Amino acid sequence: MNPLYQRFADTAARTPDALAIQAGGQALTHRQFLALADAQAARWQAQGLEPGQSIGWLGHNSPAMLAGLLACAKLGAVFVPLNWRLAAAELAAIADHAGLAALEHTPELADLAAQVRAGARLAGADAPLPPGDVLLVYTSGTTGEPKGALHTQHGMLANIDMATAVQGFTAAERVLAVLPLFHVGGLCIQVLPALAAGGAVHLQARFDPGAWLADLAAWRPTTSLLVPAVMQAILAHPGWPAADVASLRFLNSGSSIVPVALIDPFHARGVPMAQVYGSTETGPFSIALAPGEALAHLGSVGRPAPGVQLRLAAADGTPVAPGAVGEIQLRAPNLMRGYHRLPAGAGFVDGWYATGDLARADADGRVTVVGRSKDMIISGGENIYPAEIENLASTWPGVAEAAVVGLPDARWGEVPVLVLVPQPGAVVDVDGLQALFQARLARFKHPRRVVQADQVPRTALGKVQKAALAAQLMAGRAAESPGQPTA
Repeat among the record's keywords (predicted)? Predict the structure, then answer.
Protein backbone atom coordinates (compact mmCIF):
# COMPACT_ATOMS: atom_id res chain seq x y z
CA MET A 1 0.00 0.00 0.00
CA ASN A 2 2.95 2.33 0.65
CA PRO A 3 5.81 0.99 -1.53
CA LEU A 4 7.53 4.36 -1.94
CA TYR A 5 7.82 4.79 1.81
CA GLN A 6 8.95 1.18 2.17
CA ARG A 7 11.82 1.69 -0.28
CA PHE A 8 13.27 4.42 1.92
CA ALA A 9 12.60 2.40 5.06
CA ASP A 10 14.63 -0.41 3.50
CA THR A 11 17.45 2.02 2.74
CA ALA A 12 17.44 3.26 6.33
CA ALA A 13 17.65 -0.33 7.56
CA ARG A 14 20.53 -1.08 5.20
CA THR A 15 22.62 2.07 5.83
CA PRO A 16 21.18 3.59 9.02
CA ASP A 17 24.17 5.69 10.06
CA ALA A 18 25.28 6.93 6.64
CA LEU A 19 24.71 10.59 5.81
CA ALA A 20 21.45 11.15 3.94
CA ILE A 21 20.83 14.90 3.84
CA GLN A 22 22.88 17.95 4.69
CA ALA A 23 21.24 21.36 4.56
CA GLY A 24 22.67 24.44 6.19
CA GLY A 25 23.76 23.38 9.64
CA GLN A 26 21.54 20.28 9.67
CA ALA A 27 22.84 16.80 8.90
CA LEU A 28 20.61 13.73 8.94
CA THR A 29 21.53 10.07 8.64
CA HIS A 30 19.20 7.76 6.74
CA ARG A 31 17.78 6.56 10.06
CA GLN A 32 17.15 10.14 11.19
CA PHE A 33 15.59 11.09 7.86
CA LEU A 34 13.11 8.22 8.12
CA ALA A 35 12.37 9.20 11.73
CA LEU A 36 11.62 12.75 10.56
CA ALA A 37 9.16 11.36 8.00
CA ASP A 38 7.56 9.10 10.62
CA ALA A 39 7.12 12.03 13.00
CA GLN A 40 5.56 14.11 10.24
CA ALA A 41 3.17 11.29 9.36
CA ALA A 42 2.16 10.86 13.00
CA ARG A 43 1.48 14.58 13.37
CA TRP A 44 -0.64 14.77 10.23
CA GLN A 45 -2.55 11.64 11.17
CA ALA A 46 -3.29 13.12 14.59
CA GLN A 47 -4.59 16.25 12.85
CA GLY A 48 -7.04 14.13 10.87
CA LEU A 49 -5.32 13.74 7.49
CA GLU A 50 -6.88 10.74 5.78
CA PRO A 51 -5.80 8.51 2.88
CA GLY A 52 -6.52 10.13 -0.47
CA GLN A 53 -6.46 13.67 0.93
CA SER A 54 -3.94 16.22 -0.30
CA ILE A 55 -1.61 18.40 1.71
CA GLY A 56 0.18 21.41 0.22
CA TRP A 57 3.78 22.31 0.97
CA LEU A 58 5.06 25.86 0.56
CA GLY A 59 8.74 26.22 1.31
CA HIS A 60 12.28 26.40 0.02
CA ASN A 61 14.29 23.19 -0.31
CA SER A 62 14.65 21.48 3.07
CA PRO A 63 14.88 18.03 4.68
CA ALA A 64 11.37 18.58 6.08
CA MET A 65 10.00 18.93 2.55
CA LEU A 66 11.43 15.57 1.52
CA ALA A 67 10.20 14.03 4.76
CA GLY A 68 6.73 15.40 3.99
CA LEU A 69 6.62 13.44 0.74
CA LEU A 70 7.54 10.21 2.54
CA ALA A 71 5.00 10.97 5.28
CA CYS A 72 2.28 11.22 2.64
CA ALA A 73 3.49 7.98 1.08
CA LYS A 74 3.23 6.26 4.46
CA LEU A 75 -0.29 7.56 5.09
CA GLY A 76 -1.62 7.06 1.56
CA ALA A 77 -2.07 10.83 1.23
CA VAL A 78 -1.01 13.08 -1.66
CA PHE A 79 1.85 15.56 -1.42
CA VAL A 80 1.40 18.83 -3.35
CA PRO A 81 4.60 20.91 -3.52
CA LEU A 82 3.83 24.52 -4.40
CA ASN A 83 5.88 26.96 -6.43
CA TRP A 84 6.73 29.77 -4.00
CA ARG A 85 7.59 32.04 -6.94
CA LEU A 86 3.91 32.34 -7.83
CA ALA A 87 1.67 35.13 -6.57
CA ALA A 88 -0.65 34.41 -3.63
CA ALA A 89 -3.73 34.52 -5.88
CA GLU A 90 -2.18 31.96 -8.24
CA LEU A 91 -1.28 29.69 -5.33
CA ALA A 92 -4.78 29.99 -3.86
CA ALA A 93 -6.26 28.94 -7.20
CA ILE A 94 -3.97 25.90 -7.30
CA ALA A 95 -4.84 25.07 -3.68
CA ASP A 96 -8.54 25.07 -4.54
CA HIS A 97 -8.00 23.07 -7.72
CA ALA A 98 -5.95 20.49 -5.82
CA GLY A 99 -8.56 20.28 -3.07
CA LEU A 100 -5.98 20.75 -0.34
CA ALA A 101 -7.04 19.62 3.11
CA ALA A 102 -4.20 21.59 4.69
CA LEU A 103 -1.25 23.81 3.83
CA GLU A 104 2.19 23.47 5.44
CA HIS A 105 4.83 26.17 5.11
CA THR A 106 8.34 26.92 6.26
CA PRO A 107 8.94 29.98 8.48
CA GLU A 108 10.46 32.20 5.79
CA LEU A 109 7.25 31.99 3.73
CA ALA A 110 4.77 32.59 6.55
CA ASP A 111 3.43 35.83 5.04
CA LEU A 112 2.86 34.25 1.63
CA ALA A 113 1.20 31.23 3.24
CA ALA A 114 -1.15 33.52 5.18
CA GLN A 115 -2.21 35.23 1.94
CA VAL A 116 -2.84 31.85 0.30
CA ARG A 117 -4.94 30.67 3.24
CA ALA A 118 -6.97 33.87 3.05
CA GLY A 119 -7.80 33.22 -0.59
CA ALA A 120 -8.27 29.43 -0.60
CA ARG A 121 -10.91 27.15 0.89
CA LEU A 122 -8.56 24.43 2.25
CA ALA A 123 -11.60 22.30 2.93
CA GLY A 124 -10.39 19.17 1.20
CA ALA A 125 -11.70 17.59 -1.98
CA ASP A 126 -15.24 16.33 -2.37
CA ALA A 127 -13.86 12.79 -2.74
CA PRO A 128 -10.47 11.28 -1.88
CA LEU A 129 -8.01 10.51 -4.64
CA PRO A 130 -7.51 6.84 -5.56
CA PRO A 131 -5.19 4.66 -3.47
CA GLY A 132 -1.63 4.81 -4.70
CA ASP A 133 -1.56 8.47 -5.73
CA VAL A 134 1.21 10.24 -3.82
CA LEU A 135 2.39 13.32 -5.73
CA LEU A 136 0.40 16.08 -7.43
CA VAL A 137 2.67 18.51 -9.27
CA TYR A 138 1.44 21.48 -11.23
CA THR A 139 3.01 22.22 -14.59
CA SER A 140 4.88 25.45 -15.16
CA GLY A 141 2.24 26.73 -17.53
CA THR A 142 4.48 27.71 -20.47
CA THR A 143 1.56 27.10 -22.86
CA GLY A 144 -1.41 28.09 -20.72
CA GLU A 145 -2.93 27.54 -17.29
CA PRO A 146 -1.02 25.14 -15.02
CA LYS A 147 -2.34 21.58 -14.90
CA GLY A 148 -1.92 19.11 -12.05
CA ALA A 149 -0.11 15.87 -12.93
CA LEU A 150 -0.87 12.95 -10.61
CA HIS A 151 1.89 10.43 -9.93
CA THR A 152 1.53 7.11 -8.15
CA GLN A 153 3.90 5.48 -5.69
CA HIS A 154 4.66 2.70 -8.19
CA GLY A 155 5.34 5.25 -10.92
CA MET A 156 7.76 7.15 -8.71
CA LEU A 157 9.56 3.92 -7.84
CA ALA A 158 9.90 3.14 -11.54
CA ASN A 159 11.38 6.60 -12.06
CA ILE A 160 13.86 6.04 -9.22
CA ASP A 161 14.97 2.75 -10.76
CA MET A 162 15.39 4.29 -14.24
CA ALA A 163 17.37 7.26 -12.94
CA THR A 164 19.54 5.04 -10.74
CA ALA A 165 20.39 2.69 -13.60
CA VAL A 166 21.25 5.37 -16.16
CA GLN A 167 23.24 7.57 -13.78
CA GLY A 168 24.94 4.66 -12.04
CA PHE A 169 23.97 5.74 -8.54
CA THR A 170 25.31 3.83 -5.53
CA ALA A 171 25.60 4.51 -1.81
CA ALA A 172 28.77 6.45 -2.63
CA GLU A 173 26.87 9.16 -4.55
CA ARG A 174 27.03 12.74 -3.26
CA VAL A 175 24.47 14.99 -4.94
CA LEU A 176 24.64 18.79 -4.74
CA ALA A 177 20.96 19.72 -5.17
CA VAL A 178 20.08 23.30 -6.09
CA LEU A 179 16.94 23.11 -8.24
CA PRO A 180 13.56 23.62 -6.55
CA LEU A 181 11.98 20.48 -5.14
CA PHE A 182 8.51 21.73 -6.11
CA HIS A 183 9.27 20.47 -9.63
CA VAL A 184 9.78 16.83 -10.60
CA GLY A 185 13.17 17.68 -12.08
CA GLY A 186 14.66 18.90 -8.83
CA LEU A 187 12.92 16.16 -6.86
CA CYS A 188 13.05 13.04 -9.00
CA ILE A 189 16.07 13.07 -11.32
CA GLN A 190 18.82 12.94 -8.69
CA VAL A 191 17.59 13.66 -5.15
CA LEU A 192 15.19 10.76 -4.55
CA PRO A 193 17.24 8.22 -6.56
CA ALA A 194 20.43 9.08 -4.67
CA LEU A 195 18.71 8.87 -1.29
CA ALA A 196 17.06 5.56 -2.19
CA ALA A 197 20.48 4.19 -3.17
CA GLY A 198 21.86 5.11 0.25
CA GLY A 199 23.76 8.12 -1.02
CA ALA A 200 23.92 11.65 0.36
CA VAL A 201 22.29 14.89 -0.78
CA HIS A 202 23.45 18.41 0.03
CA LEU A 203 20.41 20.67 -0.28
CA GLN A 204 20.69 24.35 -1.08
CA ALA A 205 17.54 26.21 -0.07
CA ARG A 206 17.83 28.32 -3.22
CA PHE A 207 20.39 28.35 -5.99
CA ASP A 208 23.25 30.82 -5.81
CA PRO A 209 26.27 30.38 -8.09
CA GLY A 210 28.73 31.45 -5.41
CA ALA A 211 27.21 29.00 -2.93
CA TRP A 212 27.30 26.23 -5.56
CA LEU A 213 31.01 26.80 -6.11
CA ALA A 214 31.65 26.98 -2.36
CA ASP A 215 29.83 23.69 -1.79
CA LEU A 216 31.70 22.15 -4.71
CA ALA A 217 34.95 22.98 -2.92
CA ALA A 218 33.88 22.11 0.62
CA TRP A 219 31.52 19.16 0.17
CA ARG A 220 33.12 17.50 -2.89
CA PRO A 221 29.95 16.28 -4.63
CA THR A 222 30.04 13.63 -7.33
CA THR A 223 27.23 15.18 -9.38
CA SER A 224 24.69 17.99 -9.60
CA LEU A 225 21.62 18.64 -11.74
CA LEU A 226 21.58 21.97 -13.56
CA VAL A 227 19.41 23.81 -16.07
CA PRO A 228 20.67 26.26 -18.72
CA ALA A 229 20.06 29.38 -16.61
CA VAL A 230 21.98 27.82 -13.71
CA MET A 231 24.81 26.70 -16.00
CA GLN A 232 25.06 30.22 -17.36
CA ALA A 233 25.25 31.72 -13.86
CA ILE A 234 28.00 29.29 -12.82
CA LEU A 235 30.08 29.94 -15.93
CA ALA A 236 29.72 33.71 -15.48
CA HIS A 237 30.88 33.61 -11.85
CA PRO A 238 34.47 34.81 -11.30
CA GLY A 239 35.18 31.72 -9.20
CA TRP A 240 34.48 29.23 -12.00
CA PRO A 241 37.87 29.28 -13.80
CA ALA A 242 39.73 28.28 -10.62
CA ALA A 243 37.10 25.85 -9.30
CA ASP A 244 38.34 22.35 -8.44
CA VAL A 245 36.02 20.02 -10.36
CA ALA A 246 37.95 16.81 -9.67
CA SER A 247 35.24 15.32 -7.43
CA LEU A 248 32.57 15.53 -10.15
CA ARG A 249 31.87 12.21 -11.86
CA PHE A 250 29.47 14.04 -14.17
CA LEU A 251 26.90 16.82 -14.24
CA ASN A 252 23.39 16.52 -15.59
CA SER A 253 21.17 19.02 -17.33
CA GLY A 254 17.61 19.12 -18.50
CA SER A 255 14.32 21.04 -18.60
CA SER A 256 14.90 22.56 -22.03
CA ILE A 257 17.19 22.38 -25.04
CA VAL A 258 20.70 23.03 -23.75
CA PRO A 259 22.86 25.15 -26.06
CA VAL A 260 26.16 23.55 -27.02
CA ALA A 261 27.85 26.81 -26.05
CA LEU A 262 26.87 26.11 -22.43
CA ILE A 263 27.98 22.48 -22.51
CA ASP A 264 31.42 23.04 -24.05
CA PRO A 265 32.98 24.90 -21.07
CA PHE A 266 32.17 21.99 -18.74
CA HIS A 267 33.53 19.44 -21.20
CA ALA A 268 36.66 21.58 -21.54
CA ARG A 269 37.22 21.08 -17.81
CA GLY A 270 36.82 17.31 -18.21
CA VAL A 271 33.33 17.16 -16.67
CA PRO A 272 30.80 15.21 -18.78
CA MET A 273 27.48 17.04 -19.10
CA ALA A 274 24.84 14.33 -19.33
CA GLN A 275 21.27 15.10 -20.40
CA VAL A 276 17.79 14.15 -19.24
CA TYR A 277 14.68 14.75 -21.29
CA GLY A 278 11.29 14.72 -19.61
CA SER A 279 8.46 16.79 -18.23
CA THR A 280 6.16 17.10 -15.24
CA GLU A 281 3.93 14.47 -16.81
CA THR A 282 6.67 11.92 -17.56
CA GLY A 283 8.13 11.36 -14.14
CA PRO A 284 10.37 13.03 -15.53
CA PHE A 285 13.10 10.50 -16.43
CA SER A 286 12.24 9.50 -20.01
CA ILE A 287 15.16 9.92 -22.38
CA ALA A 288 18.71 10.29 -21.13
CA LEU A 289 22.26 10.69 -22.34
CA ALA A 290 24.31 8.61 -19.91
CA PRO A 291 27.44 10.14 -18.35
CA GLY A 292 29.69 7.80 -20.31
CA GLU A 293 28.25 9.00 -23.63
CA ALA A 294 28.08 12.72 -22.91
CA LEU A 295 31.44 13.75 -24.36
CA ALA A 296 30.95 11.80 -27.60
CA HIS A 297 27.36 12.82 -28.35
CA LEU A 298 27.19 16.56 -27.82
CA GLY A 299 23.71 18.00 -28.29
CA SER A 300 21.83 14.72 -28.01
CA VAL A 301 19.47 13.96 -25.12
CA GLY A 302 20.31 10.28 -25.47
CA ARG A 303 18.14 7.19 -25.71
CA PRO A 304 14.96 6.06 -23.98
CA ALA A 305 15.53 5.04 -20.37
CA PRO A 306 14.99 1.38 -19.42
CA GLY A 307 11.28 0.57 -19.68
CA VAL A 308 10.42 3.61 -21.81
CA GLN A 309 8.88 3.18 -25.26
CA LEU A 310 9.37 6.06 -27.69
CA ARG A 311 7.80 6.88 -31.00
CA LEU A 312 8.29 9.94 -33.15
CA ALA A 313 4.94 10.70 -34.72
CA ALA A 314 3.80 12.81 -37.64
CA ALA A 315 0.83 15.15 -37.31
CA ASP A 316 -1.52 12.32 -38.33
CA GLY A 317 -0.12 10.03 -35.62
CA THR A 318 1.88 7.75 -37.91
CA PRO A 319 5.59 7.11 -37.21
CA VAL A 320 7.95 9.36 -39.16
CA ALA A 321 10.67 8.06 -41.46
CA PRO A 322 14.13 7.43 -39.94
CA GLY A 323 15.94 10.73 -39.41
CA ALA A 324 12.79 12.81 -39.88
CA VAL A 325 11.35 15.17 -37.28
CA GLY A 326 8.33 13.99 -35.31
CA GLU A 327 6.56 14.58 -32.01
CA ILE A 328 8.00 12.71 -29.03
CA GLN A 329 5.33 10.31 -27.74
CA LEU A 330 5.98 8.02 -24.80
CA ARG A 331 4.76 4.94 -22.98
CA ALA A 332 6.43 4.23 -19.66
CA PRO A 333 5.73 2.99 -16.12
CA ASN A 334 6.72 6.36 -14.62
CA LEU A 335 4.22 8.46 -16.57
CA MET A 336 1.59 10.38 -14.64
CA ARG A 337 -1.66 8.57 -13.95
CA GLY A 338 -3.43 11.55 -15.47
CA TYR A 339 -4.29 15.21 -15.01
CA HIS A 340 -6.21 16.09 -11.87
CA ARG A 341 -9.83 16.98 -12.65
CA LEU A 342 -9.43 16.47 -16.39
CA PRO A 343 -11.02 13.64 -18.37
CA ALA A 344 -9.19 10.31 -18.35
CA GLY A 345 -6.75 10.14 -21.22
CA ALA A 346 -6.20 13.89 -21.50
CA GLY A 347 -2.77 14.44 -23.02
CA PHE A 348 -2.60 10.90 -24.43
CA VAL A 349 -3.06 9.66 -28.01
CA ASP A 350 -3.89 5.96 -28.34
CA GLY A 351 -2.18 5.29 -25.02
CA TRP A 352 0.91 7.35 -25.84
CA TYR A 353 1.65 10.53 -23.91
CA ALA A 354 2.00 13.31 -26.49
CA THR A 355 4.73 15.65 -25.25
CA GLY A 356 4.38 18.40 -27.85
CA ASP A 357 8.16 18.31 -28.33
CA LEU A 358 9.72 17.70 -31.73
CA ALA A 359 12.82 15.58 -32.26
CA ARG A 360 14.72 13.34 -34.64
CA ALA A 361 16.57 10.10 -33.88
CA ASP A 362 19.78 8.75 -35.40
CA ALA A 363 20.43 5.17 -36.49
CA ASP A 364 21.44 4.20 -32.94
CA GLY A 365 18.26 5.61 -31.42
CA ARG A 366 19.82 8.71 -29.91
CA VAL A 367 17.39 11.58 -29.83
CA THR A 368 17.99 15.25 -30.62
CA VAL A 369 15.22 17.64 -29.59
CA VAL A 370 14.61 20.43 -32.09
CA GLY A 371 11.87 22.38 -30.31
CA ARG A 372 8.25 22.54 -29.24
CA SER A 373 5.60 21.85 -31.84
CA LYS A 374 3.86 25.06 -30.72
CA ASP A 375 7.14 26.96 -31.13
CA MET A 376 7.79 25.72 -34.67
CA ILE A 377 7.61 28.59 -37.13
CA ILE A 378 5.99 28.10 -40.53
CA SER A 379 7.26 30.82 -42.83
CA GLY A 380 6.17 30.76 -46.46
CA GLY A 381 5.33 27.08 -46.10
CA GLU A 382 8.76 26.15 -44.69
CA ASN A 383 9.22 24.68 -41.20
CA ILE A 384 11.72 26.54 -39.01
CA TYR A 385 12.88 25.05 -35.71
CA PRO A 386 13.95 27.81 -33.29
CA ALA A 387 16.54 25.62 -31.55
CA GLU A 388 18.65 25.44 -34.71
CA ILE A 389 18.94 29.23 -34.85
CA GLU A 390 19.33 29.56 -31.07
CA ASN A 391 22.19 27.05 -30.88
CA LEU A 392 24.07 28.78 -33.68
CA ALA A 393 23.54 32.27 -32.24
CA SER A 394 24.69 31.09 -28.79
CA THR A 395 28.15 30.36 -30.20
CA TRP A 396 28.66 33.99 -31.28
CA PRO A 397 31.02 36.15 -29.16
CA GLY A 398 29.28 38.23 -26.53
CA VAL A 399 26.00 36.29 -26.63
CA ALA A 400 24.90 34.96 -23.25
CA GLU A 401 21.58 33.62 -24.47
CA ALA A 402 19.48 33.42 -27.62
CA ALA A 403 15.75 32.85 -28.04
CA VAL A 404 13.77 32.71 -31.27
CA VAL A 405 10.02 33.24 -31.63
CA GLY A 406 7.72 33.55 -34.60
CA LEU A 407 5.82 36.79 -35.16
CA PRO A 408 2.99 37.42 -37.64
CA ASP A 409 3.94 38.64 -41.10
CA ALA A 410 1.54 39.70 -43.86
CA ARG A 411 3.58 38.11 -46.63
CA TRP A 412 5.11 34.99 -45.07
CA GLY A 413 2.51 34.16 -42.41
CA GLU A 414 5.12 34.39 -39.68
CA VAL A 415 8.83 35.11 -39.51
CA PRO A 416 11.56 34.26 -36.99
CA VAL A 417 12.70 36.99 -34.63
CA LEU A 418 15.88 36.51 -32.60
CA VAL A 419 16.21 37.91 -29.07
CA LEU A 420 19.77 38.15 -27.75
CA VAL A 421 20.83 38.59 -24.14
CA PRO A 422 24.40 39.96 -24.27
CA GLN A 423 27.05 38.92 -21.79
CA PRO A 424 27.72 41.61 -19.15
CA GLY A 425 29.58 44.49 -20.74
CA ALA A 426 29.65 42.86 -24.18
CA VAL A 427 28.77 44.52 -27.47
CA VAL A 428 27.41 41.97 -29.92
CA ASP A 429 28.53 42.32 -33.54
CA VAL A 430 25.12 41.75 -35.10
CA ASP A 431 26.42 42.28 -38.64
CA GLY A 432 28.93 39.51 -38.06
CA LEU A 433 26.20 37.30 -36.68
CA GLN A 434 24.17 37.99 -39.81
CA ALA A 435 27.11 36.80 -41.89
CA LEU A 436 27.23 33.61 -39.82
CA PHE A 437 23.57 32.97 -40.55
CA GLN A 438 24.17 33.53 -44.26
CA ALA A 439 27.01 31.02 -44.22
CA ARG A 440 25.33 28.33 -42.12
CA LEU A 441 21.55 28.57 -42.54
CA ALA A 442 19.11 28.47 -45.43
CA ARG A 443 17.87 31.95 -46.27
CA PHE A 444 14.31 31.32 -45.09
CA LYS A 445 15.67 30.55 -41.61
CA HIS A 446 17.43 33.90 -41.21
CA PRO A 447 15.88 35.97 -38.38
CA ARG A 448 13.91 38.86 -39.85
CA ARG A 449 14.80 40.96 -36.81
CA VAL A 450 17.37 40.83 -34.02
CA VAL A 451 16.39 42.32 -30.69
CA GLN A 452 18.59 42.74 -27.62
CA ALA A 453 17.21 42.44 -24.11
CA ASP A 454 18.55 42.30 -20.57
CA GLN A 455 16.65 39.07 -19.91
CA VAL A 456 13.90 36.83 -21.24
CA PRO A 457 10.82 35.64 -19.31
CA ARG A 458 11.28 32.23 -17.69
CA THR A 459 9.49 29.57 -15.71
CA ALA A 460 10.78 28.50 -12.29
CA LEU A 461 12.95 25.83 -13.92
CA GLY A 462 14.51 28.21 -16.38
CA LYS A 463 12.46 27.42 -19.48
CA VAL A 464 11.98 30.42 -21.73
CA GLN A 465 8.32 31.43 -21.88
CA LYS A 466 8.06 31.87 -25.63
CA ALA A 467 4.47 33.13 -25.59
CA ALA A 468 5.33 35.84 -23.07
CA LEU A 469 8.44 36.77 -25.04
CA ALA A 470 6.43 37.08 -28.26
CA ALA A 471 3.90 39.26 -26.46
CA GLN A 472 6.69 41.54 -25.25
CA LEU A 473 8.03 41.86 -28.78
CA MET A 474 4.58 42.62 -30.15
CA ALA A 475 4.23 45.33 -27.50
CA GLY A 476 7.64 46.75 -28.42
CA ARG A 477 9.22 46.27 -24.99
CA ALA A 478 12.68 45.33 -26.27
CA ALA A 479 15.33 47.33 -28.10
CA GLU A 480 15.92 46.72 -31.79
CA SER A 481 19.55 45.95 -32.57
CA PRO A 482 21.44 47.99 -35.13
CA GLY A 483 22.34 46.14 -38.29
CA GLN A 484 19.66 43.52 -37.85
CA PRO A 485 19.59 40.70 -40.39
CA THR A 486 17.11 40.91 -43.22
CA ALA A 487 15.40 38.13 -45.11
Answer: no
